[in-house]
Specification:
Elements: H1 2-5, H2 11-22, H3 36-54, H4 62-68, H5 74-90, H6 95-102, H7 107-117
Length: 121
Amino acid sequence: MLARRFARCTDQVKITLFKAYCQGLYTGNLWTTYTKKSLSVLRVQYNNGFRALLGLPRYCSASEMFAQSHTDGFFAVLRKKTASLLNRIRTSSNSILKTVAEKYDSPIINHFVQSNTKRPL
């Protein structure tokens, strides 16, 4: 829909629309139980949506297109969302949240470490 409605807009406008509508990845920072395969499917759709919006060829390099447009790729968005969540939990005034976030064996910390140390698929 975005690609059709805004086909005549500049690339900068299209990139702004992509960031507003497609980078939200609602609750992406909590996706701890997704398999590599399901995340890969989401990543491919994310990449294809960006290509379609900018009118790029289907098989162009995803990393190159995101780098040239100064836009975060799928895994960068997830890492930033996870880091933001962890930061909000650690700076919360809620003592229970702080305790959970500061436990090094907690699922939140494990997810944060894994999402920031894994290589993209």
